[in-house]
Amino acid sequence: MSASAILLPMAISMIAAALTPSKAKKQLAEAQQQQGTVCLETNFNDASLLQKTLQEHGVPVVQEAEDCFVTQLDDAMIVFRRASADGPFVMDIGEVGDIQCLIDELDCIETEYNGNVQTYTYERVMNNLPEDMVVESEEVLEDNSIVLTLTVE
Length: 153
Known about the structure:
Helix 2 (21-33) crosses helix 4. Helix content is 37%, strand content 31%. The model is unreliable at 8-18 (pLDDT under 50). It is elongated and about 65 Å long. The longest helix is centred in the C-terminal third of the chain and has 29 residues, at 99-127. It has helices at residues 9-13, 21-33, 47-56, 99-127, and strands spanning 2-7, 38-41, 61-65, 68-73, 76-81, 90-94, 133-140, 146-152. By secondary structure, it is of the alpha+beta class. The chain has a five-stranded antiparallel β-sheet with strand order 2-6-5-4-3, with helices on one face.
């Protein structure tokens, strides 16, 4: 008997981003005009994977508390925080310079984060397969999703 598992980069962390780029751009523009801080929801749920992604992207991370850290991304100061250990992070963004550049960078970070979530999940599945299961086949699709076909012996 065999079974297939599909690991989708976007579906693992969440199906869709919490905020569309157009809404984010509008909120950032309003905050910039008022010289204030804007709070944006994210789909980032794992603190260690988020910090890893930011560091791989070349963004310095300063830990302020267990579920709160600060980064400087281009001209923007970003505080990532969350209210509970199992909830998603929100970003408090201040000192915004080029809004479109910031949105592009955040989009890249989200894509890299989703890839890190997929890698983590893949490695966890592969390292924790029961002894009576073996990988029959593995296929990476065009959208970077992975199809694993497992055989139960």
